[in-house]
Design goal:
The chain is mainly beta and 75 residues long. Helices cover 5% and strands 27% of the residues. The protein has 1 helix and 4 strands. A two-stranded antiparallel sheet has the order 1-4. Strands 2-3 form a two-stranded antiparallel sheet. The radius of gyration is 12 Å and the shape is globular.
Length: 75
């Protein structure tokens, strides 16, 4: 899977978001349904953003605080 070893930094807006956890989305950090077409066995992480904020979204697949980056890519 095409993970990368650094997070995606985004200025997020309020609302329900679906973040890619399989690494295959062409629209990272958001899910584009690639987990289904490529049979990755993974599902997107849904998160309700209540107010605008800056976020670091994991793209290494190792975080324990999905979808947020916890620095696991540095271990």
């Amino acid at each position: 899977m095409p993970y990368q070893e650094s997070p995606h930094y985004i200025d997020e807006t309020p609302g329900n978001k679906y973040y890619c956890t399989c690494g295959e989305s062409a629209n990272k950090p958001y899910c584009d349904g690639s987990h289904e077409t490529r049979n990755t066995g993974k599902s997107p992480m849904e998160l309700n953003i209540e107010s605008a904020c800056r976020m670091a979204i994991c793209d290494c697949g190792k975080t324990k605080t999905s979808p947020r980056c916890d620095g696991s890519h540095d271990e």
